Amino acid sequence: MRVLLIGNANSIHIRRWASSLAGRGLDVSLLSRAQVPVEGVRLIAAEVPSWAPWRPGRWAQRRRGMFRRVVHEVGPDVVNVHYLGPYSVFPEDLGGARLLVNTWGSDVIPLGPEPPEQRRQKIRVLRSADRLMSSSHHLARATCEYAGLAQQRVVTNHWGVELDRFGPPGTPSDEPVVGFVKSLQPHYGPRTLLTAFAEVVQAVPGAKLLMAGRVDELRTELENQAAGLGISSKIEWLGHVDYDEVPGLFRRMGVSAMPSTREAFGMAAIESQAIGVPVVASTVGGLPEVVVDGQTGLLVPPDDPPALARALIRVLSDRKLRHRLGRQGRAHVEANFDFNATVDRMVATYEEMVSGPGRPERASAGRSRLLVNSSVV
Predict the structure, then answer these.
(1) In CATH, which of 3.40.50.300, 3.40.640.10, 3.40.50.2000, 3.40.50.720 is domain 177-336?
(2) Is 239 helix (H, G, I), strand (E, B) or coil?
(3) CATH of 2-160+339-355, one of 3.40.50.1000, 3.40.50.2000, 3.30.230.10, 3.30.530.20
(4) What string of pLDDT tens digits covers the 377 residues of the chain?
(5) DSSP string covering 227-286, please?
(6) What phi and psi, each to the nearest 5 degrees, are found at residue 14?
(7) The pTM is what?
């Protein structure tokens, strides 16, 4: 079976998908602007001209022309889009290929106002897809709401981790270390965590905080907040951490924190539990699907520093609880979030799509309308 993946090769998760599908014997091509090699996968450059606001129609037609050429060259049985952009795919140019769209989060739960024409273009693709897939029930519902679709149109396929990479399971560190492994963006709750941690250091002698994740404009603000709280010396700012180093990072922790105010799924929570480190997370988005309150971690309300502090103090102060949560977290991941099972479900979906009858009607090439906005490049 020939599969054309469309996504960002800079993402470790796209590379995991591509490599694993190729490992199942599929003929996999990856269309990406970023050119990061993936073993066993044909990488195709999404050569797109620079955005020309004075000629938006010509720009869109050239991008569509690139897509047509790639589809003709690859001859895919399935085109699988990971993270939907308004010009990721042109359904009317798929030929006989089936279309699967995997929504990731902010593509259907926008972080801010979205240009109406951009939204209409994405809805058109979602409605014309043969199958839609999301990584959590929360995200599946959001996808349906975004496109005005019935709930049964979206399949949930929980992502997972490679159990050997995040293994063998250990025990949480007995050092009072709290870890945060997310990019430093406001909706992941770093401000809330710093405020809560100021309470933790008062109650737990020697408490430390590891802040790992992509550095952005919030870093300076967070450092200033930490200084104002008098906890700068208790924090280790790690910046970006390569994926191969993530398991070792979690092994340094007694507990990991995910105080997000929005979260499509919660991969970091799965990774932490796979190592055997309990998680304190917010009751938002897909996190309650990943963290079992009182069994693999603790759930707290979002934007509630005192509640977050109490939960972190409880886990750090109770070795028996910490180790029990850690053991049960690993068992939870083994039973529900094994990436091999995730890939198996994806392959089975491809096979059903190719062998199944019928597909939604697609707009004809001659009648389709290209909607262009200068914020889309």
Answers:
(1) 3.40.50.2000
(2) strand
(3) 3.40.50.2000
(4) 999 999 999 999 999 999 999 999 999 999 999 999 999 999 999 887 665 655 666 777 888 899 999 999 999 999 999 999 888 899 999 999 999 999 999 999 998 898 888 899 999 999 999 999 999 999 999 999 999 999 999 999 999 999 999 988 889 999 999 999 999 999 999 999 999 999 999 999 999 999 998 876 788 999 999 999 999 999 999 999 999 999 999 999 999 999 999 999 999 999 999 999 999 999 999 999 999 999 999 999 999 999 999 999 999 999 999 999 999 999 999 999 999 999 999 999 999 999 976 554 454 433 344 433 323 33
(5) HHHT-GGGEEEEE---GGGHHHHHTT-SEEEE--S--SS-HHHHHHHHHT--EEEESSTT
(6) -65, -45
(7) 0.90
Residue 79 structure tokens: 């085109």
Q: Both tokens of residue 222?
A: 């967070």
